[in-house]
Write a structure and sequence with these properties.
Chain lengths: 385, 97
């Protein structure tokens, strides 16, 4: 089975063909926006970090920015920096150019200020867009897909129907040789033993348990009980009582395949199949890190509704809450509420989701793309100064 | 599962069902549970998506859904009673040690 995608110099394949403008520091964000804003096919990242960061935090920010530039949904990149920041623009650009795509770099302080930098940036991006327009989609094996999975704004329909249906589709992607990322570690708490049992090795099982313990201890250190902060008020109103109940419903998205690998935030999988990425439960941070890790497409279940999308990857919204589909049809792509009424089978709903993933990979726009949702947020791990 | 199903039990080990529609107080439902058909009367309104007990759950016992513990009963919960944040708490890591 294939989708129509874009082959890149490093051999990876993308589902979209963006020219990406990356501000390597928050001070360059507005200039980056002025470059990308008016040019169709160009997007910028609303990045506010990149300075005053040290150690693991600095590495994480850099990894996300480089990951976005490297993602095969991106044709070429312009990095815009200020000139005095902790993560120099040239360092981000060098990391991305290892992928073989064209990467240019401008710094506001050495380019004569914001207006001149924006002008020079627009000229470069226009060239890049003209080159991008010459690339055509070609058949790409489904085995090259990396599907990010997520749930946000969950209610009782998530664990009962939309997550199991997505899980069926996840199994189909993996059967094609593709990769599915399960993430959101705090929402594994209460269900981690189930995922750990599916690990290929005891070492991988141990990594799952260590990841969930880390998050719980992190909350305890700051005087919080994570199980009191999660579920959210919306989840509770929607019928979810405890974090364990939420997590048990969440893991259905991962289908039934064995767990091949546990990877850190925003890192790329080195294996195919089902992967667990250790990330926060914050919806936008989770989305950001799966895309930074190479996901070219994301399937996202919701019960309460959420419009979020990614700057460079299509995010397909799924719901089993029929009322939500009616009232938020500008944000939700697929309705599987008939599963709850008994008028659709899990296999049929899962197959529909799989087909939607394939046509979206081949170019069909999601509601989040039509809304212009470009949500981006980097998880910080240390103090910044 | 037919059109008229108002509640769902996911796993045979569960001791709660999830309402698929809002169920009024005193309404009776016939639920398939552990191979038997049981008639359960709601002791109060159970909103759509919320849970009610299928059998007596004593204080300190696990509330079970998806075949796994999802929390601990804070008080005795009777069959047909709404089970949610007012009478169920999360298991903390301390409970597990």
């Amino acid at each position: 089975m294939t989708f129509q995608g874009f082959r890149r110099p490093d051999g990876k394949a993308g589902t979209r063909n963006y020219v990406l403008v990356i501000p390597s520091v928050g001070c360059a964000q507005h200039t980056a926006q002025s470059v990308a804003g008016s040019l169709k096919g160009a997007v910028y990242l609303p990045n506010t970090l990149g300075c005053g960061q040290i150690g693991a935090d600095r590495e994480q920010t850099k990894r996300v920015l480089v990951g976005f530039g490297t993602n095969p949904n991106v044709f070429s990149v312009l990095v815009v920096g200020l000139g005095c920041e902790s993560i120099p623009a040239k360092e981000v650009a060098a990391g991305i150019s290892a992928s073989g795509k064209r990467v240019e770099c401008l710094e506001i302080q050495s380019s004569g200020g914001p207006r001149r930098t924006a002008g020079a940036g627009r000229r470069l991006v226009k060239e890049m867009l003209a080159d991008a327009a010459r690339v055509e989609r070609e058949p790409i094996p489904a085995s090259e897909l990396i599907l990010g999975t997520e749930c946000g704004g969950s209610d009782y329909t998530s664990g009962l129907a939309s997550n199991p249906a997505l899980g069926f589709a996840s199994d189909l992607i993996i059967a094609e040789g593709g990769t599915v990322i399960l993430s959101e570690t705090p929402e594994l708490i209460g269900a981690e033993h189930i995922i750990a049992k599916r690990a290929r090795s005891r070492g991988i099982a141990r990594e799952v348990l260590e990841a969930t313990a880390w998050w719980e201890n992190k909350a305890i250190e700051s005087g919080q009980d994570i199980r009191e902060a999660n579920p959210s008020p919306g989840n509770i109103a929607g019928g979810i009582t405890t974090l364990e109940e939420k997590s048990l419903g969440c893991i259905y998205k991962a289908g039934t395949a064995p767990l091949e690998e546990v990877i850190p935030y925003a890192c790329s999988p080195s294996k195919k199949g089902l992967i667990f990425m250790d990330t926060p439960a914050h919806d936008i941070e989770q989305l950001t890190d799966m895309v930074a890790g190479g996901a070219q497409i994301v399937a996202f279940t919701t019960g309460r509704g959420t419009p979020i999308g990614s700057p460079i990857a299509p995010v397909i919204k799924l719901t089993a809450n029929g009322e939500l589909y009616r009232t938020m049809s500008d944000a939700i792509d697929v309705d599987v509420s008939r599963l709850l009424k008994g008028s659709e089978t899990l296999k049929h709903a899962g197959q529909r989701i799989f087909e939607r993933i394939m046509v979206t990979a081949s170019g069909k726009r999601t509601k989040a793309e039509r809304l212009g949702q470009r949500d981006f947020c980097i998880f910080t791990v240390g103090t910044h100064i | 599962m037919g059109q008229k199903t108002k509640a769902i039990v996911i796993n045979d080990r569960d001791n709660v069902a999830t309402a698929l529609v809002s169920i009024e107080a005193d309404a009776s439902l016939v639920i398939e549970h552990q191979g038997r058909r049981k008639e359960i009367t709601m002791r109060s309104v159970v909103p759509a998506g919320h849970k009610f007990a299928l059998c007596e759950i004593n204080r300190g016992e696990y509330v079970v859904k998806y075949g796994e513990p999802i929390g601990i009963a804070l008080v005795r919960i009777r069959p047909g009673e709404h089970a949610h944040v007012h009478n169920v708490r999360s298991r903390s890591r301390r409970d597990e040690e």
